[in-house]
Structure prediction request, 954 residues.
Amino acid sequence: MKISTVSELLSQDITLIDVEIKGWVRTFRANRFIALNDGSTINNIQCVVDFENTDEAILKRITTGAAIHIKGLLVESQGKGQNVEIQATSIEILGDSDPETYPIQPKKHSLEFLRENAHLRTRTNTFSAVMRLRSALSFAIHKYFNDNGFYYMHTPIITGSDAEGAGEMFRVSTLDAKNPPLTEDGSVDFTKDFFGKEANLTVSGQLEAETYAMSLGKVYTFGPTFRAENSNTSRHLSEFWMIEPEVAFMDLDGNMDLAEDFMKSVLNYVLENNKEDLAFLEQRQAQEDKSKPQAERNEMTLTDKLRFVVDNNFKRVSYTEAIDILRNSKPNKKKKFQYLINEWGADLQSEHERFLVEKHFKCPVILFDYPANIKAFYMRLNEDEKTVRAMDILFPGIGEIVGGSQREERLEVLKEKMAALDIPEEELWWYLDLRKYGTAVHSGFGLGFERLVMFVTGMGNIRDVIPYPRTPQNAEF
Amino acid sequence: MKISTVSELLSQDITLIDVEIKGWVRTFRANRFIALNDGSTINNIQCVVDFENTDEAILKRITTGAAIHIKGLLVESQGKGQNVEIQATSIEILGDSDPETYPIQPKKHSLEFLRENAHLRTRTNTFSAVMRLRSALSFAIHKYFNDNGFYYMHTPIITGSDAEGAGEMFRVSTLDAKNPPLTEDGSVDFTKDFFGKEANLTVSGQLEAETYAMSLGKVYTFGPTFRAENSNTSRHLSEFWMIEPEVAFMDLDGNMDLAEDFMKSVLNYVLENNKEDLAFLEQRQAQEDKSKPQAERNEMTLTDKLRFVVDNNFKRVSYTEAIDILRNSKPNKKKKFQYLINEWGADLQSEHERFLVEKHFKCPVILFDYPANIKAFYMRLNEDEKTVRAMDILFPGIGEIVGGSQREERLEVLKEKMAALDIPEEELWWYLDLRKYGTAVHSGFGLGFERLVMFVTGMGNIRDVIPYPRTPQNAEF
Prediction:
């Protein structure tokens, strides 16, 4: 007989049918009620054991974490919390789980403990919900771009170029680590390395994505990127996933339209398709908040926060206007900001971004036209020669979630920018070629995928939204 | 006015409307006919220039590769090859393309030359078709798994484990390459490296995918994997993308069902959604074949080859049966095989796989139950203790395209296998935990994405189906 999933059975209208199911025991109480889960939904199905007619030896092996195979009759449930349950007629133990040693007991574990047991943590409600949402968000992203005529592009992970400038890089090598070959002048001879030159892990696929936008029109990347920075915070990973769309003939206004439509669409997708996991995580967040001091509690429920983004127009404000607002704001005047805003040119911190979104505008905000010297070399210089056509999208609770720009499409201006930053033209000859041959206005943005998953799930530590986090001193599993 | 795409205009039924379009000039002939492409389709739209009323200076700048902006009237075309064309009323040059230096001229370029200009090669019909198909195949894969209740999982790229055993690995490090810190005994002190231990790029996400299958039920990976092997062939990359589904409670038969259904579904998707690109590549292959010796020509057209997979049941044959067939085959007896099959235990080569598919069975073939000693440690041992529950799927033209297995779910058997291969248990403690706590039958397979793209596009060199190939001595762009 076909093995059903818990999800299928719980949404089953017809009862009094024979069913078969395989899954893992979450709890077993009163020698009678098994809560069984198979990952297909956050909900368990209740399996009622006829303990008087079941072998004692089998009953003892129905422990939390054990894999079992149940045959039985699907019936309407008398208990509360579920519509249907299974009256088990046969129970087979597929794999035992020793209750003395099994780490995932039916009690609250700390997130730190579960990180150390990351190979088992999706056996909890919290992590299974987070990872199902992560998967749903991934699909929503691919679906959005596919529906809108974008091509998915796999940009290279190993790069011979170190000109991207977005951060510290990891070296990729097969040289003898202890005795690398040396050149005559005594430096490491990377011409003998695997790729014939020094190679690193990519920090961004944008520059390569631009090459494809300038031929295929609309493209996006969705792949891993790396930062070798020694940041041990709840917001940084050494390995994380990024989404980077890039579109030819699109200016910064078009970029804002795209980003707003994209973010709303992706959030709408999970609001429609992942109600149960969201409801669980919303409740979890509310529960967590109770033990926090008032100031650290979330002002909105999880769903309200998603609705806040989906239902509001994003307010578009220039950096210059934003600085004025912040300079004259109460927290600035009363010195409540950790970093006070004194003058134009300051880099905004999360506290400022959140103030704009949560207190001042009360809607998602897109800041644009940032000072050139706090942004990357490839952003298009405005006529004022002081600002660039950059944009950051700010969300409640987290501040910046998306960063993008119109790219500098003028060969001479780009060369000047690179020269000023000592980026050698030979390193990016191919990037410059795009401005030599059929150049055009084009734009794009980057979204750190884990930041999005944190926003949607309400998890406070980025290590808890990726299966196996890589951070300084940690590459376990 | 809205900027239309070429794809939109070519499928437009209504004519005599004002339209606006931006794209790149493919050709400009007779000072009159611009073939314009914007990447949205392989087809160009013809724009007819009123050259008598157009500035001579502008006409001169309409060169291959130039980016232009055209306004005009969409009309029925008198010429053959297209239904509609644009009578241009305004032509703006957005970005020039110097015909003296632009590498991508309207003539046939060698694939080698285009590889050196990989940043511009999607401006050709061949590469734009290949990369659109690559994108469509990616989406088809995500859609298939999403539709079938699988969760997408991002397995780690940087791994601290070197026990996967699938191949040579790249080291990831931030240590000083020239003067690495040493331990007292004089070896490199990796505890001082970024991750506190030696770290490498992953060769497979399977082991981590198993951890999620054993909680979420059905999962898959789709991410980059790496091999530091010095293989300079048309079938090997140092960096490539893999798809690895993994399913709890599924045995090898279920694995075969899944793989067959999956491959058919993905190929059906592009047969339905990418007709024009496939038709172009089919024609290209036929053209290429003309200049090849008879023996190297394709026996089937591109579409026939895809239909061969979609329309036939995959024949399931044990390794032992296959060896018998091969041993008694004509090419073996007449010593036509490069590697003769003499006895049970031999590893099959592509020539043998293709013989089985193309000559003997005339349908895709799934071989199963391979000798244990030519397969990986994690495959489930059969009762005969000689073979494992492995499977390879063989396709026409390329041989093996999918490799999978039922995994060894028995703790003691797995430990013995690891001990025999000197894989330390401490390295894979978490993998062993899956067998300690709620173990169950589970299976999965791996598909090298670029092999699939080669199969679908008919491209003969794997360097031509990924945007920026990484191979020994090459990490350009």
